[in-house]
Amino acid sequence: MANRVVRLPLVGTGLGATLRKDNWWIGPAVTFAVLSSFIAYATFRAFENNFFSYGPYLSPFYSPYIESKGFGISFLSPAMLILPGPASFRFTCYYYRKAYYRAFAMDPPACAVGERNPEKYNGERKLLLFQNLHRFAMYVAVLFLVFLWHDFYKSLSFDGHFGLGLGSLVLLTNCVLLSGYTFGCHSFRHLIGGSVDSFSTAPFGKLRHSLWNLVTKLNGNHMAFAWSSLFGVALTDLYIRMVASGAIHDIRFL
Amino acid sequence: MADKATIRVFRGNEDGGEFKEYEVETYTGMVVLDAIHEIQAKQAPDLAVRWNCKAGRCGSCSAEVNGKPRLLCMTRMSHFAEGEAINVTPMRTFPIIKDLVTDVSWNYEMAKKIPEFKPRPRDADGHWRMQQYDIDRIQEFRKCIECFMCQNVCHVLRDHDKKKEFAGPRFFIHLATLEMHPLDTLDRRQMMKDDFGLGLCNITRCCTEVCPEHIQITDNGIIPMKERVADDFYDPVRWLLARFGGKKKKSLPIVQSTGDAGEDTHKTKKPKKTA
After folding, report:
1. N or C: which end of chain B has fewer CB atoms below 10 A?
2. Do both B17 and B113 map to the same domain?
3. Is residue B231 part of a domain?
4. For residue B230, what are the CA distances in angstroms to A94, A129, A134, A236, B193?
5. Are residues B117 and B233 in the same domain?
6. Measured between CA atoms, how close is B245 to chain A, in angstroms?
7. Residue A3 — pLDDT band, cuts 50, 70, 90?
8. Could you tell me the CATH number of the domain that includes residue B43?
9. Is B135 an 8 Å CB contact of chain A?
10. Residue B79 predicted with pLDDT over 70
11. B206, A112: Cβ pair inside 8 Å?
């Protein structure tokens, strides 16, 4: 009898087939709406190529700032040159993979809910084999963090004098959230100590175990950091856009 | 809580079946397994259900309640709204034997295919030594009660029926237990990639959601194993370092299988010496 598949006759097959009675579709629907909105907003801002800096503030969508005029492509903006870096980190992120496999690919849309084309499935072995390169996207993301913290540092200087504006705090919040997200990454956790079998005998084993414990704590909140940092980046850019366009005025505390 | 509850139980076998509706009297603290026993005792003595400890420790009474994998003995009747009919069905991924009982023997066959723990030789004084913080990680996995609800909910097995090429979350945490063990001396990464289908898992985390022991199967078991497999097979920098820089890969005997997960033959190969 083993390995003989007998489908429960009371449940159909195909997308959405389930005996679940709860509102299982809300999670993927919200994920779909939020991620789609973010992609639409980021695309709009990348093409807008305007209102990305104000005084010492620089939008995270345009940081690090790379002049794009020399490439000879009229619609190319500095944002388009750098956004593939953080985008690749989020796209290959172990948390976001769950989110978009459920919300976009519907493979599966939710636990114990039927999906499309159950006979066609290769997981992350063929077309999606590149997901195994997440660690390289993480290296790039760490590099971007250096630029973003430097942007925050620069945001404390107004005409050569120390100052603090609401924009500085917005940039700081963005850096904190992105740091929490990046340093809680599963690949970072593996790099810092996850690959060690015996901490007590490995070189720098105690140090690596302590660091691994810290990263594990961040990793436990990876989903929260993934979403909050996504909103953080978008809202930071929106704040700078509104200040730069004159829609609102930056508040100076110092 | 209502004084009476309506339970709709799947009655049938591998040839088919249907829901049958029963009404049971409820009481404070009652769980779904109590209701099933009540039905068995008073209304349907031929109703088949597998159970043992009734305390969430043995993993025998796994089934689906309102479409969600659950232990019947740990699901309180008060969890459901008053007047709501409660659907109780067998685990969908495994062949039905009768009513709520499924044939989970595929899991035991899969377990046999995993090369067992092979510790390094004892120290000179006859002891093995390791520190508690070396094994904290794997002790989480030892909480597994083998209820197989993670296997049941995993869409790779449930919807795609990849039982021939995919071991499933329960066995990935078993493999993680062995791979992370400070005393173990085998390298099972190639086997995980080629024979146990680790790449088929697209980490949608349903296994973690249903685990009654709250084991972080995905974050602490499967993803670390995916990273270890990536170390050996998908990291060109590590490959270059091993090839030209003299950096050694994990120098343990590599376990290679001679067939798919449907066979239980495997052999170990000494690692190639790198410069």
Report:
1. C
2. no
3. yes
4. 13, 10, 9, 34, 9
5. yes
6. 19
7. very low
8. 3.10.20.30
9. no
10. yes
11. yes
Cβ distance A108 to B206 less than 8 Å, yes or no, reads yes
Q: How many domains does chain B have?
A: 2
Of B188 and B245, the structure prediction assigns the larger pLDDT to B188
Residue B29's domain comprises 4-102
Using a CB-CB distance cutoff of 8 angstroms, which residues of chain A are in contact with residue B10?
8, 10
| Distance between A143 CA and the closest CA of chain B, angstroms | 18
| B231 and B109 housed in the same domain | yes
**B171 in any annotated domain:** yes
Contact criterion met (CB < 8 Å) for A124 and B235: no
Residue B121 lies in a domain: yes
Which of B10, B68, B231 has the CB atom closest to A10's CB atom? B10
pLDDT tens-place string over residues B144-163:
999 999 999 999 999 999 99
For residue A1, name the pLDDT band (cuts at 50, 70, 90): very low
pLDDT reported for residue A4: 43
Residue A157 has pLDDT above 90, yes or no: yes
B5's enclosing H/E stretch is strand B4-13
Q: What is the CATH number of the domain that holds B165?
A: 1.10.1060.10
Identify any residues that bridge with B23 across adjacent strands, giving them in sequence order. B6
Distance (Å, whole) CA A39 – CA B130? 49
User: CB of B144 within 8 A of CB of A157?
Assistant: no
The reply to whether B167 and B232 lie within a common domain is yes
Of A138-152, B139-153, B236-250, which range is least confident? B236-250
CA distance B34 to B55: 12
Question: What is the token pair recorded at A56?
Answer: 């010492």
Cβ neighbours of B204 in A, within 8 Å: 98, 101-102, 107-108, 111
Instruction: Look at the block and give the residue holding tokens 């409660």.
Output: B86
Q: How many CB pairs under 8 A join A and B?
A: 166
For B:220-249, CB contacts with A below 8 A are: 223-224, 226-231, 233-235
Q: What's the mean pLDDT when you consider all of chain A?
A: 94
Are B123 and B31 found together in one domain? no
Least CB-CB distance to B182: which of A6, A198, A220? A198
| Residue B96 sits in the same domain as residue B158 | no
On whether both B166 and B71 belong to a single domain, the answer is no
- Please give the ipTM for the structure prediction: 0.94
Cβ(B200)–Cβ(A121) under 8 Å? yes
What is the tens place of the pLDDT at every residue in B185-200? 999 999 999 999 999 9
B210/A111 Cβ within 8 A: yes
Angle between helices B223-233 and B169-179 (to 10 degrees): 60
Quick check: is B263 in a domain?
A: no
SS3 A64: coil
